[in-house]
Amino acid sequence: MKPPVSQPPIIGYVTPLSAAPGQDLSFRISSTGDQPFTARVVRIHCADPNPAGPGMRMEAVDLPLQARYPGQEQAVHPGACAWAALGSVDAHRLVLRLRARPTLASDPMQVLASLQDATARLGVALAIDKGEFVLVVRTTPDGAARTLRSGVPATQDRWQAITLDVVLDTGKLSLTVETVPMGVPGAGPALPTRHAQVDADAVLAVPTHLCLGALWQGHPAQGYNGLVEGPRLHARRPDGTDTLIAEWHLARDMQAQCIAAAHAGMPTLVLENMPVRAVRSSAWTGRQLDWKQAPDEYAAIWFHADALADCGWREALKLRIPPGLASGVYGLEIRNADGADTIPFYVTPAKDGPRARVLFLASTLTYQAYANHARGNYAGELAERIAAWDAYPHNPDIVTQFGASTYNRHRDLAGICLSSRLRPMLTMRPGYLTFPDPRGSGLRHFPADSHLTSWLQDRGIAYDVITDEDLDDQGLAALAPYDVVLTGSHPEYHTRGMIEALIAYRENGGHLMYFGANGFYWKVARPASAPHMLEIRRAEGGIRAWAAEPGEYYHQFDGGYGGMWRRNGIPPQATGGVGFAVQGGFEGVGYRRTPESYDADVAWLFDGVQGERYGDHGLSGGGAAGFELDQVVTELGSPSWLKIVGVSEGHGPSFKIVPEEILTWTIAASLPRKYEGVRAHMAVGLAENGGGLFAAGSITFLGSLWKNGYDNDISRIVENCLRRFLRASDARRDRGQRATSNIAE
């Protein structure tokens, strides 16, 4: 088995993720050693490398590409920071004041603020080095930096008022660190005021730039972990006059990537790598939990040295989608002498072109939320399986430079609440394995959803595809042309606009087939100014990898309250008919038919299915009902006409009721329900006024489409439902019926 490599020999990303015929996709590619590379387009039908399944099904597509492309190795520069061009400063002395709250004071050399030239070759920086404030001076463009130690400790997780006094013509530097009065009690005793004076023994250049949170070298360097508020820069001229030359209110323009100066004529502050905002400042009282109602209490920015919002790579290849190319899931396969990568993308239908009747809604915001999820499980059995199956070789446990997921934490242990797609997303690759599943393939998200596209190809069912971003941008209009909309295995993350569009589609006579669980769960925000980003605030309840701090439940991007859709008044049941109820290990069992499944209005679902039990097989955990399970709950929005036709039984001891389902260990959060407890609900129904729902109630369900070459009960149930929904649409169309939506557009 080859040892893992931390630097993939060739890798890339694409923007945007989808395009229609006539539109362009831009591929940003890094090839080590500037090696040239070849490229070809493939259609991705199945991305599961398990030899016991259908196998990797990648169909070459003949498109006009060059025989060879010049390669370039492109660097990654993580670190959130903020910088301003000061222009010409007339001063012999500068005084910088700010308040800071370090969150990883023990780390070496983190630049809190830098007064510098355009590339940080000259200047003075205030930094934290292993718990101590230090001053780093650069007095000649080619000279080495000198570190002057202050002896003043940087106190972890406490707000400190900092004054840095720089006498440029003598090189004398003074540092004062004082306690900051807090808006809430319990912060601890006041910190003693500490002073330090050091001498650079050289004339210091007049700075042209100020950078907060890092050095600015055209990119961040030596990033700081912690919060900053209230930055102000004063210039003192030789005649003794003191002028405020830069100041910013950091709660202004919360969603923007530039912060206007507090006063006219002062420079704008430019944000890099999307620092976290809408966070508590030292003045936070706890009396207002919405930053919009008390902006002065949220006038801080949180910088992280490992934040990455945009690799900023140059375009290596542009692809224009040709007329007539079928809508579907595709990939650009790139290869140099040392390795290969496949970058997925989506071709959406032409605006005025023909449409299929079936639409696959790719859960790309969920893929992005989980992008580069470092689970700490790569070594051992998983690595051995990857090698044995020739699966995708790169794992975020090893390849760490492209940022982590919203299920990970920053180095200072703050939860990652922002995720970008302008970076390689290792977990969104054909053949990527998540778990060493002893009974299946161990796939999640993008490759797991290819179990559906492979089935559609095998059954000869024409379909179009759009992404979550397409749905968010276009709303109901993106869904309206289709008779049936199919989800993937885990459509978890949605904006308000997406949820409204899905509900309106169904209530307007559309048919939704929800093939997963734990879907329609988290509310996210996408800013129009940075559509490649998403934001998640893990507020209040729910299954969470980390919890947002009190007072930080509102998004910086749109000001909306974050957290679960259930806590925002639109439970998952209102969208997909079922909602999250049970979580366990990545293992599955089958379903048992319910007495209701024999009712005439739903019995058609089981045409050709023999026996009471079905689905006890599969490429995901070995069974159709597993890992995360959903249930019908009428008072949470499940339609009254939806019938539970199957329930799972016999789950192992790892399966537990999720927190939002209970008030105490003896009191449930909702009324008693049919078939409650540790089980999944499969449900189906057709509304009297048109439209319908199918809900599998399980994340592992799609993995069970495969058995005997798609000749099995799960495959039969899905095909029965899809074709019944299509016939129902035909009948409505023949009657000229169209339901009205109660969602305002």
Task: Give a description of the structure.
The protein is mostly beta strands and 745 residues long. The protein has 3 domains: 10-74 and 311-344, Immunoglobulin-like, CATH 2.60.40; 81-303, Jelly Rolls (Sandwich), CATH 2.60.120.200; 352-573 and 683-735, no CATH class. It is 10% helix and 31% strand. A 9-stranded mixed sheet has the order 29-27-30-32-45-44-40-37-38, sandwiched between helices. Strand 18 and strand 19 form a beta hairpin. Helix 4 (468-474) packs across helix 5 (496-507). The protein is globular.
Give a short overview.
With 745 residues, the chain is mainly β.
Task: Give keywords.
nine-stranded mixed sheet, 7 helices, Immunoglobulin-like, eight-stranded antiparallel sheet, 745 residues, disordered C terminus, mainly beta, 45 strands, Jelly Rolls, 3 domains
Summarize the amount of helix as a percent range. 10-25%
Oligomer: single chain
Would you count the extended β strands for me? 45
Report strand %.
25-35%
Provide the domain count: 3
Spatial extent as radius of gyration: 28 Å
